[in-house]
Write a structure and sequence with these properties.
The complex is a heterodimer. Helices cover about 40% and strands about 20% of the residues of chain A. Chain A is α+β, with helices and mostly antiparallel strands. Chain A has a domain of about 260 residues: Beta-lactamase (3-Layer(aba) Sandwich). The radius of gyration of chain A is 26 Å and the shape is globular. The model of chain A has no long low-confidence stretch (mean pLDDT about 90). In chain B, helix 4 packs parallel to helix 14. In chain B, the strands form 2 sheets. Chain B has a 3-stranded antiparallel β-sheet with strand order 1-2-3, with no helix packed on it. In chain B, strands 4-5 form a two-stranded antiparallel ribbon. The chains are: A alpha+beta, B mainly alpha.
């Protein structure tokens, strides 16, 4: 029997070795992945009962803070509250015991909790002084602008993203439906779960930050990218080529024509075809004039096929299809923002910002400063360029062409008296029975003769109607009102 | 004699010092969750374990010196982890659990000493083999009696509730059945090993000697189906198959056993929702990470958060793993003590398995060999099943982590199991030591 017992021993040793290997796998090899999992609340749990800094807006409104728990019998000493409710929900995110954290709460968790190396060193220096070693976050959004965006969009699904093209600071960041992070951050676990379930079952996914986590067909707003790629590659100028005045363009290898809206006849050089948003001309421009390789690398130079490096967790990638090389019909469709082209509202705001800022897209961000509890600056956001898809002279050309669209083309709804405004409408058709579309506008504005100080993208989803005018009619007034408010604030009234 | 016992005393003291040190550390930190007022309970636990050592000095002086200290270490570490569990809705706090665990440890040690006292020779047990066998099966089936059995909200019908007392009869049954099997196989092993039943060209053991074994197999299936207790079922099955294999030395039993297991597993998987659930959660806990996969996923998070060195005793954030005081205690332990602590626990079990199998190998009589093998297997396989389940090496089967988990039935039975192993060990060494002493004297 001893032989069997020995073999049994060897067998058990092998089994236990497997346990040891598996434990190494979890605690060493997979550790970083598991720690970073969005469902992992370990970090939150550790942070939950520690002091935590506040988040406040550029106009000094507190939008997230920790206050003593009124329920003294609770195991939680503090509760996290969001005084502005849903207004900043998608920016701050939530800080929940059960569900972890999201948004700024997640991105800047260590700074808020005061656990970064720099903060620990500072805390060590005044070891004998009793004060909370937390970080208070300031962000670039303003309550008044945000409220206006919320009122303007109303109860239509969509997003409003405005950015200062010169710095990358976000100025408006609203999407509907939004959610109130107070409910998810409730220390009453049953109530938090109930809210979580309700929000997850709600139409329109309120807990997603649609501004940068969802992507949509950009429609004709993408013609700015197509035109810019044409300019930057030298294949298109304001004078050449002159596209034929036709009602439709039929790419090679297909009989399916790409028609202009309402059977309209259009053509001409870049400024003219951009002004009237001429499908036939841009389809031909992308497919024949520029070609697949430059369209792919060109749109990627604008940030497509990657995620914008915003200081918020889990940004979505915007997409330009890479399988258009031997597929002229798809390339032609893609060149006018249809087919598989998809963009986040943030990405399209950055396209407008890139044109406005002399061809350089600044890294988008919300955080401007982190202060300690004494008001001393712990950290300041360092502005840095993200991409430079256009040279300054080509950017100036595209900027003038977009101003032309606002002054004489489809985006006249965007005009603000006393300011130089440029823009581009978009209407991404979703179906014809009944006609439905995502309506877009992108644009920029600033004092005449100066660099634009605001760039914007507005998308309103699932609107009835599918003509090019739809974007101008529905999305443009929202963008106009929000930009006007921002310009008033920037220029002192 | 004294050398072995002094080794044991040294190891016991080390286990006690480690546990006490861990306990002090855990209650010192500013974030400590361990309240100071259960120190008397802690002290009595450690005192009891030293008392167990004194009892071994008197009652089994030649026995193996490793097993008891390892059990003490595991018991002590488990105690500290349990005491550090924070309060949680619908669950008693670590403080309450730790007090109860102290009482259960006391009962366990009493059971340990009583077993050593009453069972003076392992073969005393042989006389009662059929009583044990029947009692074991009756206990296994007891939770199915209407009015007695309950699942206590766990989903497994494995509890018996009499007045205020709840216990898991399956825990007792496993030791009784191990004794029965050891006795039965010691008696019949020659016959089983040499009998041949030809089915065409295939040579199988004669089924008529296998009656009790097949009966046991059926019983385990019943347990699995009606009590939904996969862990115990698997444990029994491993026990039976391996014991027959060790008894007869015929590998065909492993093959047949494996085949029966595969058939049973396939049948259970196809027929029972709870088996399918366990398997699909094992394969992909991320499919429903806040529902069915919650426990596993949170366990993985906790262990990963601990990393190599752990978060520190008592500093666990693992409040929310369901069953963190029992089935999932390994995840909490590996979080607080890290890979180092987790490996320590695995090593402690491996040492116990090694000691147990050495006792089996050194035994002179077939019954002693088989008994030691069976008991060691129960301990080793149970620890493997639950650690493997928590680390997602295997589908999760709800069994306790021997000596570490909170839980009266399991703790008491494991101490009795330990006493039986020591009894066999003492018997072996006495048989060897005397002639050697005489030889030297001559």
């Amino acid at each position: 029997m001893n032989r069997s017992i020995r073999r049994l021993g060897i067998g058990l040793v092998v089994l236990y070795l497997a346990l040891f290997v598996k434990l190494n796998w979890i605690q060493v090899i997979d550790k970083d992945d598991l720690d970073a999992n969005p469902l992992n609340t370990a970090q939150v749990r550790r942070d939950f009962n520690r002091p935590r800094g506040s988040i406040s807006t550029a106009d000094g409104v507190l939008i997230a803070q920790s206050v003593p728990n009124p329920d003294e019998s609770s195991e939680f000493e503090r509760v996290r509250v969001y005084p502005e409710g849903d207004l900043f929900g998608q920016a701050t995110g939530f800080f929940s015991f059960r569900y972890g954290s999201s948004g700024l709460e997640k991105e800047y968790s260590d700074l808020l909790a005061g656990t970064t190396f720099e903060q620990q060193i500072r805390g060590f220096a005044d070891l004998l002084v009793a004060r909370e070693n937390v970080g208070n976050l300031s962000i670039s959004l303003r309550k008044d602008v945000q409220e206006l965006a919320r009122a303007q969009l109303g109860d239509r699904e969509g997003s409003v993203v405005a950015v200062d093209p010169r710095t990358g600071e976000l100025l408006a960041f609203w999407s509907y439906p939004s959610y109130d992070p107070n409910y998810i951050s409730n220390v009453d676990q049953a109530a938090a779960k109930e809210a979580w379930d309700i929000y997850n079952a709600a139409p329109g996914q309120p807990m997603r930050a649609h501004q940068y986590q969802d992507r949509y067909f950009p429609g004709s707003t993408f013609k700015v990218v197509t035109g810019s790629v044409g300019l930057q590659t030298g294949k298109v100028t304001d004078e050449e080529p002159v596209y034929p005045r036709v009602t439709s363009y039929t790419p090679p290898q297909t009989n399916l024509a790409i028609s202009n809206f309402g059977g309209q006849v259009c053509g001409g050089p870049l400024p003219d075809v951009l002004r009237v948003s001429c499908n036939s001309a841009f389809a031909e421009m992308g497919q024949a004039t520029i070609g697949a390789a430059d369209m792919i690398s060109g749109s990627e130079s604008w940030g497509f096929n990657k995620a914008a490096p915003i200081d918020l967790p889990d940004p979505a990638r915007s997409v330009f299809p890479t399988d258009v090389v031997n597929n002229p019909p798809k390339l032609a469709q893609s060149s006018i923002g249809q087919s598989d082209v998809q963009a986040t509202p943030l990405q399209m705001a950055l396209v407008a910002a890139g044109v406005a800022n002399g061809g350089t897209i600044m890294t988008p961000h919300l955080m401007t400063q982190v202060l300690d509890s004494q008001g001393e600056v712990v950290k300041t956001y360092e502005q840095k360029p993200w991409l430079t898809p256009l040279s300054p002279e080509h950017a100036a050309t595209m900027r003038a062409d977009m101003v032309n669209v606002a002054e004489r083309g489809t985006a006249t709804g965007l005009l603000i008296p006393g300011y130089e405004v440029g823009g581009k409408t978009g209407t991404a058709q979703l179906g014809t029975e009944p006609p439905q579309s995502h309506t877009w506008i992108i644009g920029f504005a600033g004092l005449p003769g100066q660099d634009p100080s605001v760039a914007i993208a507005v998308v309103v989803l699932n609107q009835s109607g599918a003509s090019e005018a739809t974007g101008g009619r529905i999305a443009a007034p929202i963008a106009r009102a929000v930009m006007e408010k921002i310009l008033q604030v920037q220029n002192g009234g | 004699m004294t050398q072995r016992r002094n080794t044991e005393l040294g190891l016991m003291l080390m286990a006690v010092i480690i546990t006490a040190g861990a306990y002090v550390l855990a209650s010192l930190g500013s974030d400590a969750r361990i309240p100071a007022n259960i120190i008397p309970f802690m002290a009595s636990v450690l005192g009891l374990l030293l008392g167990a050592h004194v009892a071994v000095r008197r009652l089994a002086p030649e026995s193996d010196p490793i097993l008891l200290p390892m059990a003490a270490l595991l018991n002590g570490l488990g105690y500290v982890v349990i005491a550090g569990l924070p309060e949680q809705t619908n669950m008693p706090s670590g403080e309450v659990l730790a007090r109860q665990q102290a009482v259960w440890t006391a009962i366990g040690v009493v059971g340990f000493v009583a077993t050593l006292w009453f069972v003076r020779r392992p073969r005393d047990l042989v006389r009662y083999r059929y009583t044990f066998g029947l009692l074991g099966i009756a206990l296994l089936l007891l939770p199915l009696v209407p009015g007695l059995g309950t699942d206590r909200g766990s989903g497994s019908q494995i509890w018996v509730s009499v007045g205020p007392v709840n216990f898991q009869p399956g825990e007792v049954a496993k030791v009784l059945l191990a004794i029965f099997f050891a006795a039965y196989l010691a008696e019949q092993r020659e016959l089983i090993a040499t009998s041949v039943w030809k089915v065409g060209p295939v040579r199988l053991p004669d089924p008529k000697y296998l009656g009790p074994v097949l009966l046991a197999w059926v019983v385990t299936l019943v347990v699995m189906v009606y009590q939904k207790d996969l862990g115990s079922s698997l444990l029994f099955f491993a026990l039976f198959v391996v014991m027959i294999w060790v008894a007869t030395g015929r590998t065909s039993f492993l093959v047949i056993g494996g085949g029966l297991f595969a058939a049973g597993a396939w049948f259970a998987y196809r027929t029972f929702g709870h088996v399918q659930d366990r398997v699909s959660i094992w394969l992909d806990p991320w499919k429903d990470p806040s529902g069915t996969g919650y426990q596993i996923v949170q366990g993985l998070f906790a262990m990963a958060f601990g990393g190599v060195t752990g978060t520190g005793l008592g500093l666990s954030s693992g409040v929310r793993i369901p069953a963190s005081e029992s089935d999932f205690i390994f995840a909490v332990l590996a979080e607080q003590l890290g890979l180092l602590g987790g490996a320590l626990v695995i090593m402690a079990y491996l040492l116990m398995v090694g000691s147990g199998l050495r006792i089996a190998a050194r035994a002179d009589h077939a019954f002693d060999k088989l008994l030691a093998t069976g008991l060691t297997l129960l301990l080793g396989v149970q620890a493997f099943l639950i650690i493997g389940g928590v680390t997602r090496l295997l589908p999760l089967t709800g069994v306790t982590l021997p000596f570490v988990s909170y839980g009266g039935s399991s703790l008491v039975v494991n101490y009795v199991l330990l006493a039986l192993l020591l009894r066999v060990s003492d018997q072996n060494e006495r048989g060897r030591a005397r002639p050697r002493v005489e030889a030297v004297a001559a």
